[in-house]
Design goal:
Blueprint: H1 7-10, H2 71-78, H3 84-95, H4 118-133, H5 141-170, H6 174-178, H7 185-189, H8 194-205, H9 209-216, H10 233-236, E1 256-257, H11 279-292, E2 296-301, H12 307-323, H13 329-337, E3 342-348, E4 351-361, E5 366-374, H14 383-399, E6 403-408, H15 413-418, H16 429-432, E7 443-448, H17 458-476, H18 532-551, H19 571-574, H20 581-590, H21 597-614, H22 620-646
Parallel strand pairs: 5-6
Antiparallel strand pairs: 1-2, 2-3, 3-4, 4-5, 6-7
Helix pairs in contact: 2-5, 3-5, 4-8, 5-9, 11-17, 12-13, 18-20, 18-22, 21-22
The chain binds acetyl coenzyme *A (ACO).
């Protein structure tokens, strides 16, 4: 059934614009529900505001031995302000089991107890202390340091061997384009978050070696053992075409541009007259178009030693450093550069806009998201969603994963919920427990990766669903038909130039309207005839008698004519919707304006309300308004009662 907006006619608020039948496509098609498929579609959103933890999320996954940082990248990055410290950081991190930087060395007073996160620090330090006595982890505490040192040496060797190439690249025009520019980096480097510094220093300077302390800081003592992914299992993990299933630390390049993964079925989409997509689809479609035009790309790389990939990883590391201020920088570097971690990055104009670093536990078929961030000035533009969609598609199609787990920062829980993450963990505990650690702060969340959904082309899927629903609605109704509007011009006193009969409104009858529906009014007793003309005559007669009664009243004199602006200069500044008996009389006599008694009563009420708005209660005008209104009300009542008696 078509529908038209007829409510205005009934209540005397005939709009000045054209009266139009409802647009095609309305009512809004039912909400599309595809189940918990790891996207916002069909996901029920929890309220998370009461989550009790406030301490920052400090640490994520266990790092595997870090890969060496190729010197060429150092060379490239030396040209970039503020990235030198990154290398100092990485070098010291990779070469020294314990690191102390003067800026980070805490004074005794600069202790955890003086910090806002003191209790957290105490927990961390306690954990560090207890780790010394904890049962040996299956993750060899020394392996990271040993490997790190080797890695550093390898890195230095690399530096020697490629220095000439690096020198050449200085003059390479492309260098500037390759440079990782992060506006935030200065702030990041000069970040003087004392609590983090205290925490970092405590972590780095406590016994157990650099890598061991990192693990200790978030590992709860009741969970001292940590399983190590059986990377061989990755081959069983059904990761077709994956380059990531190699042994830890020896993984070759696992990167790939992600565009090739996109499912592209050449199905014609009928978009005509279908309600335009919501914000989610609009953003996804817009970013998809950017990708197709080559202005945007999503890539997935790990530390593979390839220059461009490393530059992007460093860029991503910088973004993480800025956007996750409670995360120790060293830890971010370590995981981003860790070869068992992969990073899905969004690249625009060869610059990293954001990314997600995750560790695929291929044998267990789940991945742990370590870090996720979009650079500050690009947030809430849909990049985070599209990134997550690319991640899911890549993780499913390349890594063979079925789930993601993450310790979500409290502030980002809402974002993760919108990406299909839940606080309920449905993944069998055996599959994940011990692989990822329990952390203080944050909240463990899970997302099931749907085996079929075209994650990078969800907007097309949604569009098809809309189309299917729209077609179904059309089978049942004719609401898609859009009728022309009504020419509804006005003349003096707001009286329509042309009489518009209700039954002449295009689409009204087609929508199921019948003449007996005319006149839904509280004063229905006035409408005694099925004939509209007779009804209107009754109504006009009654309104005319009411007007005369008011006009003849002793208190009517202030209301007989419109207020003259020459007498009351500011009147029309204050009263925007003036009314008077003369104007009402014109409307009554037109027999076109007041099609219900309510419309007439509304004008009378407005006239009195105006008088009481402009004038103070002690004025004669105010008092006249009150007395005349009382008189009017009694006349309406008695008129309606006598009309009822006649019937
Ligand atoms: C495991 C971890 O790393 S936890 C830490 C997560 N990272 C951070 O908190 C760093 C700072 N924040 C960010 O970098 C980004 O805001 C991200 C990564 C959280 C989200 O990326 P964005 O590009 O901003 O997300 P996107 O534009 O796709 O927004 C998707 C939806 O999530 C919402 N959203 C984005 N950030 C948040 C948030 N922190 N809390 C609640 N909702 C959010 C958006 O409003 C949008 O909602 P809508 O679709 O109803 O309009």
């Amino acid at each position: 059934m078509g529908r038209v907006q007829i409510h205005d006619l009934h209540f005397g608020l005939i709009p000045t614009h054209q009266l139009q039948t409802q647009k095609r496509g309305d009512p809004t098609p039912p909400r599309i529900v595809t189940g918990n498929v790891g996207t916002r579609i069909g996901i029920e959103i929890d309220l998370l505001s009461l989550y009790p933890f406030s301490s920052p999320l400090l640490c994520k996954t266990l790092p595997s031995p870090p890969a060496p940082i190729p010197k060429l990248i150092r060379k490239t990055l030396f040209g970039i302000e503020s990235t030198q410290s990154d290398f100092a950081e990485m070098d010291s991190h990779l070469t020294a089991p314990n690191r102390s930087r003067s800026s980070q060395t805490p004074s005794p007073s600069h202790s955890a107890s003086a910090s806002a996160t003191s209790s957290l620090h105490k927990r961390k330090l306690a954990a560090v202390a207890s780790e010394d006595h904890a049962p040996p982890s299956s993750f060899p505490p020394s392996s990271f340091s040993a490997d790190t040192r080797d890695g550093a040496l390898t890195s230095n060797d690399d530096l020697e061997s490629i220095s000439a190439r690096g020198a050449d690249s200085d003059s390479d025009a492309d260098d500037s384009e390759d440079a990782v520019v992060d506006d935030d980096e200065d702030d990041f480097d000069h970040d003087n978050n004392s609590s983090i510094r205290t925490f970092t220093t405590a972590r780095l300077e406590s016994g157990g070696g650099g890598s061991g302390s990192v693990r200790n800081m978030k590992l709860k003592t009741e969970n001292p053992t940590v399983k190590i992914e059986n990377t061989d299992g990755g081959k069983d993990g059904g990761a077709p075409g994956s380059g990531s299933a190699g042994p830890t630390g020896a993984t070759a390049a696992v990167g790939s541009t992600m565009a090739g993964i996109t499912t592209k079925e050449d199905v014609k989409i009928f978009t005509e007259n279908i309600q335009t997509s919501g914000a989610y689809s609009a953003r996804e479609e817009s970013l998809k178009r950017e990708e197709e035009a080559g202005r945007l790309k999503f890539v997935c790389y790990s530390n593979d030693g390839i220059d461009q990939h490393m530059v992007w990883l460093i860029g991503l590391k910088n973004i993480f450093g800025r956007q996750l201020p409670n995360m120790p920088k060293e830890y971010i570097v370590r995981l981003v550069m860790d070869r068992s971690h992969k990073s899905v990055m969004v690249i625009r104009r060869n610059q990293v806009v954001g990314g997600i670093t995750y560790r695929p536990y291929v044998g267990q078929r789940f991945g742990e998201i370590a870090f996720c961030a979009i650079t500050a000035d690009e947030q809430v533009k849909g990049y985070g969603t599209r990134l997550m969609n690319h991640l899911k598609q890549h993780a499913r199609d390349v890594d063979g994963l079925t789930h993601f787990l993450t310790y979500a920062d409290n502030n980002a829980v809402g974002y993760f919920i919108k990406q299909g993450f839940t606080k309920e963990i449905h993944l069998e505990r055996d599959r994940w427990h011990g692989y990822i650690k329990d952390y203080d702060g944050g909240i463990l969340m899970e997302c099931k990766i749907d085996p079929k959904l075209p994650y990078t082309d969800l907007s097309t899927m949604i569009r098809r669903q809309r189309q299917a629903i729209d077609e179904k609605i059309r089978e049942l109704s004719n609401c898609q038909i859009v009728y022309p509007g009504i020419d509804f011009q006005k003349k003096e006193a707001g009286i329509p130039k042309k009489v518009v009969k209700v039954e002449d409104i295009p689409g009204l009858k087609e929508a199921g309207w019948t003449p007996d529906q005319w006149g839904h009014t509280r004063f229905r007793s006035l409408i005694v005839s099925a004939d509209n003309t007779t009804n209107q005559k009754h109504l006009t007669g009654f309104m005319r008698s009411l007007l005369k009664s008011m006009h003849d009243h002793v208190d009517a004199w202030p209301f007989k004519e419109p207020v003259d602006a020459r007498d009351v200069p500011d009147y029309y500044d204050i009263i925007k919707d003036p009314m008077d008996l003369k104007t009402m009389s014109k409307r009554v006599e037109s027999e076109q304006y007041y099609v219900t008694l309510e419309m007439f009563v509304a004008d009378v009420k407005r006239m009195f309300a105006n008088a009481r708005t402009y004038n103070s209660p002690d004025t004669i005008y105010y008092k006249c308004a009150t007395r005349l209104e009382t008189h009017f009300q009694s006349k309406v009542q008695s008129g309606l009662q006598s009309n009822t008696k006649i019937q």
